[in-house]
Amino acid sequence: MLKDSLPEIKTPLPGPKADAILKRRMNAIPNAIKSAYPCVIEKGEGAMFEDVDGNRFLDWVGGVGVLNIGYSRPELIEAVKDQSEKYFHAMMNIVTHEGYISLAEKMNEIVPLKAEEKKTMFSNSGAEAIENAVKIAKSYSGRPNIIVFSGAFHGRTLLAASMTAKKSYAAGVGPFPDGIYRAEFPYLYRGPKGYDEVSAIDYYLERLNKVFEEASPAEYVAAIVVEPVQGEGGFIPAPLEWVKALRNICDEQGILLIADEVQTGFARSGKLFVSDYWKGAGCPPDILVSAKSIAGGLPLSAVTASKEIFDGVRNGIIGGTFGGNALACASALKTIEIIEKEDLCSRALAIATICRNEFDHWVEEFEEVGDVRGIGCMMGIEFVTDKESKVPNGKLVSAIVDYCVQHGLIVESAGSGSNVIRFLCPLVVTDEQLTCGLQILKSAIEACR
């Protein structure tokens, strides 16, 4: 079966069928929607997909973190099929459908927040959910401003792109919304030279306080929005001691703490959410935003907040035509059931142990491997020209990505210098596939350095 197979390249890439489709793509869709890989998917199972020419690839990107439970789960197909035979769509602002309520109840049960009484709303994408979370925070608090961080990625809609640090995602599309202020994220690998971790965290907290002093007084800040592990920014985890301090600042200043778990959620970290670790340390968020792997590949996202916060939002501010679509809700309920039944949180930690052991050897073996980091099996490998200078080595990473796809492994870059390889493999990958992927990636480093 495809889900148990290993990478196999049968034709030069792109193969003839893929090449024909990719040429059609160039004529039919915008060039700005880039494709980095010379293949066209035909079918997928588990952590593997096969292209139209019969080439088989191990997918370590998973639709960028969407396929935690893998491709084409029969249980999801059946759940969506069952729902489709009843109805495709019922807008919650008009007619109630029970699947929305059942999924909201499940999210209220599993999402870790400061408050125990919770409510959940659904939208269609991570960016849409982030925008709703910001609107909710502003409506509830009556405050106009938000604080985001260097390295952040929150989406490509206008508000989300304004919140996103990398301005190539928003070049030439202003003017942008105001009331968005940026603090420095604790990127410890590139922190102040000579600082230990404790001193570095103090430094980053001081930088945050400067935002209150020089940009927006704290009493005008509705929310601080943070990714527990920065995704596009380079898979940089927020240090737990920094999060504790952030929680204290928010409590002291009446600011809401929003966790953007669009990419980190649904078992990848070794818990359902990284905020589970936060809650265990006494610093959970007030609002949690999730998406990507929530529904196994169907468009869905969620905002979960306390009952008090949601009940403080004015009518008409939130909602939408397709938010909480019936098919997506059915898929999400089954996805969460699979994650819990198969204990994919534990599987994520087992995968992380295998990969981390190998990645740590590479830090010792290769001058160009500067840092390995992450939480659970959401891991990043940062490549540099050399360990002393730490100059980002995006050229090497680009070559590694190209080498890997030619040998049947799909990996993707991240980071402001495009010099980080991100690991977002489906959690259903087999040990044999994992070993094979690690061998391909190591061969790529050896061949391209």
From TrEMBL:
Highest taxon of the lineage: Bacteria
The name under which this protein is listed is (S)-3-amino-2-methylpropionate transaminase
Instruction: Cite a single Pfam family from the UniProt record.
Output: Aminotran_3
Instruction: Describe the reaction catalysed, as an equation.
Output: (S)-3-amino-2-methylpropanoate + 2-oxoglutarate = 2-methyl-3-oxopropanoate + L-glutamate; 4-aminobutanoate + 2-oxoglutarate = succinate semialdehyde + L-glutamate
Cofactor(s) the record lists: pyridoxal 5'-phosphate
| Similarity section | Belongs to the class-III pyridoxal-phosphate-dependent aminotransferase family.
**Keywords recorded for this protein, A-Z:** Aminotransferase, Pyridoxal phosphate, Transferase
Could you tell me the EC number(s) of this protein? 2.6.1.19, 2.6.1.22
Give GO terms: molecular function aspect only: (S)-3-amino-2-methylpropionate transaminase activity; 4-aminobutyrate:2-oxoglutarate transaminase activity; identical protein binding; pyridoxal phosphate binding
- EC class: transferase
PANTHER family for this protein:
AMINOTRANSFERASE CLASS III, LEUCINE_METHIONINE RACEMASE
Looking up InterPro entries in the UniProt record yields: Aminotrans_3, Aminotrans_3_PPA_site, Class-III_PLP-dep_AT, PyrdxlP-dep_Trfase, PyrdxlP-dep_Trfase_major, PyrdxlP-dep_Trfase_small
